[in-house]
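okkk here we go again. third time trying to get the MTE bound version out, last two times i messed up the smiles copy paste (missing a bracket lol). double checked this time i swear
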Amino acid sequence: MICSIRKLVLAVALGLSAHAYAHPTDGDAAKYVTTQLAVTGAVEHVLKLSVADLRQLPPQKLGEVPMVCQTGAKLGQLENLKGVRLRDLLEQANVVSRNHNDVKKMVVIATASDGYAVVFSWSELFNSPVGDGVLVYFEKDGAPLADDEGRIAMVSSKDLRPGPRHVKWLQSIEVRRIVE
Ligand SMILES: Nc1nc2c(c(=O)[nH]1)N[C@H]1C(S)=C(S)[C@@H](COP(=O)(O)O)O[C@H]1N2
Ligand SMILES: [Mo]
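finally!!
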């Protein structure tokens, strides 16, 4: 009962805070379009991948991913995505770890061409259900991604609010050890 009242209050609060989302790059999205993805940092093999290269990895599809901003604002949804798991990319690059505990001190930074960047921990990607849902994608409804996010983007589809880790114009993935 208490729980459902809390849910109701939360729903009302989120509804009230919903607002039109500002698109800071409207009008000049084309200049941010990326056609290659670099995988760098603490990896054995640095990768430079085109969409054609990404197609060589096991394909993954996602039907619907709600776009909810970190504020709770609902922005619609992403639909019919095709891509590859970020985890599979990292397995190709092979994260460098000299001892059993190294990977637990590592993060994975996804950066876009407009400077937007988000972080995952190695544990999130390789040892939690979140990792299953992190897709580097290059196709929507069977077509290449349009300029508003293309040609390579990423989404963490199992996030409670997937807006923040939806990375448009994905440019690089860097593996970094942040604890000695
Ligand atoms: N490259 C890039 N990706 C980005 C952003 C951005 O500013 N640059 N904004 C993020 C935020 S805060 C949200 S909520 C989602 C949804 O934004 P959209 O409605 O513009 O797709 O995109 C995310 N991806
Ligand atoms: Mo957002």
